[in-house]
Amino acid sequence: MAFLEIALEKIFTKHVHGISKFNFFLLLLLGGLSLLGDEGLWFKLQPFFTGVIMGGYLLFKLWRGVGLMEEMMMAMMEESRRPPKFIIRILELHSSVFFLLYGIFMGYVAIYLSSDRWIFFKTAGFYIAFVGFFLIELIYIRLKMKRMIENQKKAELLKKF
């Protein structure tokens, strides 16, 4: 799957992001450890490591000033088509927390639950959780934008007096 991800990323974006390369090599390393130890736990911990490292990296980038999503949008989109910076930052903050928490959850699943449950949460469970997260995030951003527009209207009204 990681090889397919890298191939499709190279075809569609003409570039392979560092996180995709990291995920590929992490799978190779943990898969090798699993084969050497005759234990599937290391392989099953891949989503834990990916989620924690990815969530942590996104939080670190935000803390340093410019988030990864913002960098990507600046590189790929014209300024007129980009959402406001604060929306991008909110989305990136919440996404990084989601990845971090889901990674921790996948560590729990890998250690304490069956392989069948791990497979579910690695595949369909992740997509279900992400769609739920994204729907909540869309509602949150819409409410935030609505409040912002209302506050701007109030500020304009107050300027008239």
Give the total of beta strands: 0
Termini separation? 62 Å
The helix/strand series, from N terminus to C terminus, equals: HHHHHHHH
Kindly state the mean pLDDT as a whole number?
Answer: 85
What number of domains?
2
Q: Label the overall shape.
A: elongated
What report would you give on this structure?
- The model has no long low-confidence stretch (mean pLDDT 85).
- The chain has helices spanning 2-13, 18-37, 41-44, 46-64, 68-76, 85-112, 115-122, 124-159.
- Helix 1 (2-13) packs antiparallel against helix 2 and helix 4 runs antiparallel to helix 6 (85-112).
- With 161 residues, the chain is mainly alpha-helical.
- The protein starts with a helix and ends with a helix.
- The protein has two domains: 1-44, no CATH class; 48-159, no CATH class.
Brief descriptors of the model:
161 residues; mainly alpha; 2 domains; 84% helix; 0% strand
Question: Mind sketching the topology for me?
Answer:
Layout (H helix, E strand, L loop, with lengths): L1 H12 L4 H20 L3 H4 L1 H19 L3 H9 L8 H28 L2 H8 L1 H36 L2
Helix pairs in contact: 1-2, 2-4, 4-6, 6-8
